[in-house]
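REQUEST FORM: STRUCTURE PREDICTION
Request ID: SP-0412
Submitted by: Lab K.M.
Chain count: 1
Length (residues): 180
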Amino acid sequence: MKFLPTEIPDVIEIVPDVFGDERGYFLETFQQERYAAGGIDLPFVQDNESRSRRGVLRGLHFQKTKPQGKLVRVIEGEVFDVAVDIRRDSPTFGRWVGRTLSAERKNQLWVPPGFAHGFVVLSETCVFSYKCTDYYDQSDDRGVLWNDPVIGIDWPVDGMRLILSDKDRQQPLLKDADLL
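STATUS: Completed
RESULT:
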């Protein structure tokens, strides 16, 4: 298993060891001691899963008073996954990290507390799974506009018909967001 640093040190890409033969494959999707040694040492309390189709863009989401760390992965399909640093006192405030996550590569991304998170589906369909370090609280749910020009996320969506919820279309810019 490899824990790969990204442009923002707190965000980590994980590439698992996959053991395959004529029967199929096996991999660990989480092992507490190994992940702690790799820099991911918070308890997980909730697992979530979503299914989406090509062009669905979800995000950028976070919780204000109960920030969630998220260990995200794709079970079916492929997404471009993004973490934006929204910690006002951070030297990387407003910067983003993006990685393509796929069922084929079986890679994961660690999005620590203090980051807004989102993804866009690149494949025809996608099953997206994530472990969270705090419980979802709808009253604490906040967001940042997915295409805020100050953040400047380079979404790989040229020619793609994007599908966003009304909530995600109306999120505030980073400068106006109700941050941590």
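NOTES: The domain at 2-17+29-176 is CATH 2.60.120.10 (Jelly Rolls).
Reviewed by: T.R.
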